[in-house]
Amino acid sequence: MDKADLDHYMEILNSFSTAMLVTRRDRELRSRPMAIAEVSEDGAIWFLTSIESGKLEEITDEPFVNLSMQDESSYLSVSGTVMATRDREKVEELWSAADKIWFPEGKDDPSIIVMEVVPTYAEYWDHSGVEGIKSIFEIGKSLVTGEQPEFDDGVHQKLNFPDHMEAQK
User: Fold this and answer.
1) What angle do CA 6, 8, 14 make, to 5 degrees?
2) Cα(94)–Cα(106) distance, integer angstroms
3) Tell me: the pLDDT tens digits for 110-130?
4) Which residues are registered as beta bridge partners of 118?
5) Are 163 and 120 contacting, i.e. CB atoms less than 8 angstroms apart?
6) Cα separations (Å) of 152 from 59, 125, 146, 149?
7) CA 22, 127, 47: angle at the middle one, nearest 5?
8) Is the pTM for the entire model greater than 0.90?
9) Does residue 124 contact residue 9 with C-beta atoms inside 8 Å?
């Protein structure tokens, strides 16, 4: 992946504050909204959650997850591996006043854990800004001609991330 693709991915990712976390339990897929606590420079996404949450058992059994995000003009799907930790320094770093809604005892609540999703693959559709105007034109043209719309490369992109396990060797 080149720097421009990563930069565009990061721009879209940083525009979201919530993601739907999709986990697997046996043959079932489960989704739940998660507040994004932080996005690392390498594209990793961080969350705070409770050790008592059912998702912890799911990610322990199956650490491959998907995050999906959508707004009026952008869509992002991130596949990756998830790791959970009780790192108190990271909890402190990620903590925001809004987290008190879920953890009334505050950032020292012993049930808080940190989850990091390290992306392996991402796909986005970005119809914002100038690309949005071009997209509207292409869709309108498609309605008249009956042909599928043609979008610039910046509208839809697929990204493969380096294998973080290989990078750690």
Assistant:
1) 100
2) 12
3) 999 999 999 999 999 887 755
4) 81
5) yes
6) 36, 11, 19, 10
7) 30
8) no
9) yes
